[in-house]
Design brief:
This protein has helices at residues 42-52, 88-96, 105-116, 175-179, 181-191, 199-203, 213-221, 225-249, 266-277, 297-320; strands spanning 3-9, 13-20, 25-32, 57-64, 67-68, 75-77, 100-104, 125-130, 134-140, 143-145, 253-257, 287-290. The protein is α/β, with parallel strands linked by helices. The chain binds zinc ion.
Length: 321
C-alpha cells in the first residue's frame, strides 16, 4: 500500500491527513493557525504531520483556496489566505525530496468525490461547493479539467445577474453573490422587516443586522416559515447556476457539497426543481446529488493527485533509465 500526506490549508486551520491509495484516511491532525500566518505556517505543520505519521509517506498534496497555476503549482492569488511565497510547493518538494502537488481546494474535492465519493464511476461530473462562497471542479472524460492555466471551474464567479449584488471578488451578480451562505444571510437581513414575528429574528434578539446564514439554518430546523422560504429561494437561485453549468457541460452528474447544505435538504430539492424547469422537458437534466466525503474531500483529493503524480514520475524514470 502506498501512502500520501494530504494537506488542506484554510484561513484558521491546517488539516493534515495520511491517505492510502484507496482514498481512506488512516490518520488526521488539525493545526490551528492565526489569520496573519496563513500559508506561511505550512512548513512547520508539514514537519509535524510527517513526524507523527506511522506510515511511509511518498508524496504530498496541498489543497489551497486560491488561484493555483497549472502545471507549475504556483499560488498566484488567495483572497482569504495570507502568504508570502507563491512557490511554496516547490520549496517543500525540494526540502523533503517528495513530489508535491498544489491544487485548488475545490478541484481537489471534485477529484476525491469522483474517485471515491458520490461521483464514483462517472466520467463527466461537476462538483459545486456551497459554503461561505461557491467553488467548483470539472471532471471531463475521467480527468480533472483545469482550463488553460489552472484557473477554470470558478463556478462561484459566473455572472448570473446583469446588475446583481456585489460579490467578494469585486464584480457584481456572480452566482456566489446570490446563492452562497453569505448570500443567504444578506437575503434574510433584507427581508427581515417583513417577517417581524419570525424565529429568524427572535434568534438574534430582533437585531436584523445580526442575521447570518447559520441563523437561518437554525430557524429552519424548527420549521420557521420565513427560514424555510429563504432556503427554498436560495436553492432556486443555486438551481439557476446549475442549469447554466449543466447546459455548458452536459455532465452525467452534479455533486453538490459544502456547509450550507447542512442548513436544509430543501436547498437541493429547490435546485433540482429549478434545473428541471430550465430543461422544459426536452431531455432529462443531469442528476444532482449530495457530496459524500464532507470536509475530508480536499485532503483526500490532494493526496490522491500527488500519488498519481508520483506514480507517473516513477514510470518516467523507469523508461528513462
Ligand atoms: Zn464574484
Amino acid at each position: 500500500m502506498r501512502y500520501s500526506l494530504g494537506v488542506d490549508v484554510g484561513g484558521t486551520k491546517i488539516l493534515g491527513a495520511v491517505v492510502d491509495e484507496q482514498g481512506a484516511i488512516v490518520a488526521k491532525t488539525r493545526v490551528p493557525t492565526d489569520q496573519q500566518e496563513g500559508l506561511d505556517a505550512l512548513p512547520e505543520a508539514i514537519d509535524r504531520f510527517l513526524a507523527e505519521a506511522e506510515q511511509p509517506i511518498g508524496s504530498i498534496g496541498l489543497a489551497v483556496a486560491g488561484f493555483v497555476e497549472y502545471p507549475s503549482g504556483r499560488l498566484l492569488f488567495a483572497p482569504n489566505l495570507s502568504f508570502s511565497n507563491p512557490g511554496i510547493g516547490e520549496d517543500i518538494s525540494r526540502e523533503y525530496g517528495f513530489p508535491v502537488v498544489v491544487e485548488n481546494d475545490a478541484n481537489a474535492a471534485a477529484w476525491a468525490e469522483n474517485r471515491f465519493g458520490a461521483g464514483r464511476g462517472t466520467r463527466n461530473m461537476l462538483m459545486v461547493t456551497v459554503g461561505t462562497g461557491i467553488g467548483g471542479g470539472i471532471i471531463c472524460e475521467g480527468k480533472l479539467y483545469r482550463g488553460s492555466r489552472g484557473f477554470g471551474a470558478e463556478f462561484g464567479h459566473i455572472p448570473v445577474s446583469v446588475d446583481g449584488p456585489a460579490c467578494n471578488c469585486g464584480s457584481r451578480g456572480c452566482l456566489e453573490a446570490v446563492a452562497s451562505g453569505t448570500a443567504l444571510g444578506r437575503m434574510a437581513r433584507e427581508r427581515a422587516p417583513e417577517h417581524l414575528d419570525s424565529e429568524v429574528l427572535r434568534l438574534v434578539g430582533g437585531n436584523a443586522e445580526a442575521i447570518t446564514g447559520a441563523v437561518v439554518g437554525k430557524a429552519a430546523d424548527i420549521r420557521d416559515p420565513f427560514a424555510v422560504e429563504l432556503l427554498w429561494d436560495l436553492g432556486t437561485l443555486l438551481g439557476v447556476g446549475l442549469a447554466g453549468l449543466a447546459k455548458a457541460f452536459d455532465p452525467e452528474m452534479i455533486v453538490v457539497g459544502g456547509g450550507v447544505l447542512a442548513e436544509g435538504e430543501s436547498i437541493l430539492a429547490a435546485a433540482r426543481e429549478e434545473l428541471a424547469a430550465r430543461y422544459q422537458g426536452q431531455v432529462d437534466p443531469p442528476v444532482v446529488v449530495s457530496a459524500s466525503l464532507g470536509n475530508d474531500a480536499g485532503v483526500v483529493g490532494a493526496a490522491q493527485l500527488s500519488l498519481e503524480a508520483a506514480a507517473s514520475r516513477g514510470i518516467g524514470e523507469e523508461h528513462g533509465g
